[in-house]
Write a structure and sequence with these properties.
The structure holds 2 protein chains of 2 kinds.
Chain A lengths: L6 H34 L2 H32 L3 H29 L11 H26 L2 H31 L4 H33 L23
Chain B lengths: L21 E12 L2 E12 L3 E5 L6 H7 L10 E9 L2 E2 L7 H7 E4 L10 H11 L6 H14 L3 H4 L12 H13 L5 E5 L7 H14 L4 E5 L3 H7 L2 E6 L2 E7 H6 L4 H7 L5
Parallel strand pairs in B: 3-8, 3-9, 6-7, 7-8
Antiparallel strand pairs in B: 1-2, 1-4, 4-5, 9-10
The chains are: A mainly alpha, B alpha/beta.
């Protein structure tokens, strides 16, 4: 896009993008480290993740201030306006992703060494998938690529499907050995966090679509998260 | 002077036009000043009881076109027009249309408030008087009062109706000019940057007034303030280099315009 007649306007919008890029990078890192900490039961790493969440929160406040100031100063129109509104929304999704990563890290301390390793693999897979999705959507945002954002939007199905299968798996373990119920519940919440991160990622994808096309992404996203209706049933 | 047979291909209508009757329309209009081709093959439908804003960079032709809507360009010898402009379906350039009569139907408010060097009362009474619209003095007085009320000025000037109009503040003078324009019961009011000489408070009052007037009139406003166009209009037309680039619902134009040139202009990217 060509430059504004006011050069400082371009700088304002550029600064917002830079802040979001930093936020996105941090959120990715937090998610990766939280998954790692939980699957390896690394309490020290988990504490770092918990402490670093404040950085994402601070960046979100910075994005908000910058956006409000730019609106007040420039009275943005059309794509510029969408650019700013979308920046605020994406910052809020990234902040939530940060919170969910932090919450996942916290559970590291509640999950003991004694937990069978196989219980962890599903969650680790979900973590990797959520990271891939987040990275893809942040790349799409940086490139202003609505088509790629749409791919991410559709791919959230995989994360949902994985969540449903982990839900069932953990349920089975809990039935087999009630002593695992406490830890499995923590893992279940960890998996739920990953699923929620996927939902925030799709929000970002929707916002990229709005930014580029000026219209809202229509239609219901295919959902494969069946856990709300999954019941425990005794096998025959 | 003009081509009487209009090309009847209508451009696609913005959504808001679907439920509002057409008041004025242009079909295949071209305007030249000497060698300069100021308006190029322009077609547009202007709805009744709505505000249509014309925006675009200086020299894009928006004021020229606005002036063509009540034949103000007739006074410029080098100006030639072809195509058709209609008011309620009737070609305003037909030989039997009297431009003075036309302008009582299609009034105009200018950039700089230009009250006559007469009293406030006489400024408003002038039009009804020359058009013979009032049978008695009492009727004339009533019309002046009504017009001043509609223009939101009566309360401020009722005790000094016979003092000079030029003694009012800029914003009051502009509202006086609007009162003068509506005193002859026009159907269309054209406004050429009506707030560009006013402070923000006076501007807000005029905008408020425009919003009220659209209940009863067809209003066309030329403005350089994008925010003003976004605030007061329901339809926005973007002009560039003598052509109508985009005409559509204001809400759409200022959030997600279709044409890149519109986008560049309203976001401040034109060099």
């Amino acid at each position: 896009m060509t430059e504004h007649t006011y050069k400082a306007y371009d700088e304002d919008l550029g600064a917002l993008k830079t802040l979001l890029a930093r936020m996105g990078g941090l959120a990715e890192e937090q998610l990766a480290r939280a998954t790692d900490a939980l699957s390896r039961r690394d309490g020290k790493l988990a504490d770092q993740v918990i402490a670093d969440d404040e950085k994402i929160d601070a960046l979100e406040r910075e994005v908000e201030q910058k956006a409000i100031l730019t609106i007040a100063k420039r009275q943005p129109m059309a794509r510029d306006l969408r650019e700013i509104i979308v920046a605020i929304r994406i910052a809020s999704d990234l902040e939530r992703i940060g919170d969910l990563a932090k919450n996942t890290a916290k559970r590291t301390h509640a999950v003991s060494e004694a937990l069978p390793r196989k219980l962890m693999t599903g969650l680790a897979r979900m973590g990797r998938l959520a990271q891939d999705q987040l990275k893809a959507v942040l790349d799409a945002y940086a490139a202003g690529d609505a088509a790629r954002a749409l791919e991410v939007w559709h791919a959230d199905e995989d994360l949902d499907a994985l969540y449903t299968s982990i839900f069932r798996e953990l349920l089975t373990y809990m039935m087999e050995d009630p002593r695992l119920i406490g830890m499995c519940t923590h893992l279940l919440f960890g998996a739920k966090n990953m699923e929620r991160i996927g939902d925030h990622t799709t929000n970002i994808a929707e916002n990229i679509h709005y930014l580029v096309h000026g219209s809202v992404l229509a239609g219901e996203r295919p959902k494969k998260d069946m856990t709300s209706t999954t019941r425990y049933e005794e096998s025959p | 002077m003009n081509d009487a047979s209009p090309p009847l291909m209508k451009p696609p209508l913005p959504r808001i036009l679907a439920d509002r009757p057409e008041k004025m329309a242009a079909r295949g209009v071209n305007i030249h000043y000497g060698d300069k081709h100021a308006i190029k093959d322009l077609s547009i439908t202007i709805p009744d009881r709505a505000v249509s804003a014309f925006i675009g960079p200086s020299g894009c032709g928006k004021s020229t076109f606005l002036r063509a809507l009540n034949r103000m360009n007739d006074t410029i010898p080098s100006c030639r027009m072809t195509g058709a402009i209609t008011l309620d379906g009737r070609n305003i350039n037909d030989p039997d249309v009297d431009p003075v009569q036309l302008r009582s139907h299609v009034g105009m408010v200018f950039q700089k408030p230009n009250p006559f060097p007469k009293s406030i009362f006489e400024n408003v009474a002038y039009g009804p008087r020359i058009h013979g619209l009032c049978a008695s003095k009492a009727e004339l007085e009533q019309r002046v009062e009504e017009s001043l009320k509609k223009a939101g000025l009566f309360g401020e000037v009722k005790d000094r109706l016979h003092q000079p109009g030029t003694g009012l503040s800029g914003g009051q003078q502009q509202r006086l000019c609007i009162a003068r324009a509506i005193a002859v019961n026009p159907e269309v009011i054209l406004m050429d940057e009506p707030c560009s000489a006013l402070d923000p408070i006076a501007t807000a009052r005029i905008e408020e007034l425009i919003d009220e007037l659209r209940q009863n009139f067809c209003i066309v406003i030329v403005t350089h303030s994008m925010q003003q166009a976004a605030r007061v209009s329901q339809l926005t037309a973007f002009f560039h280099l003598g052509t109508l680039v985009e005409f559509g619902d204001t809400d759409k134009i200022f959030t997600a315009p279709t044409d890149q040139r519109t986008q560049d202009y309203i976001t401040g990217r034109y060099g």
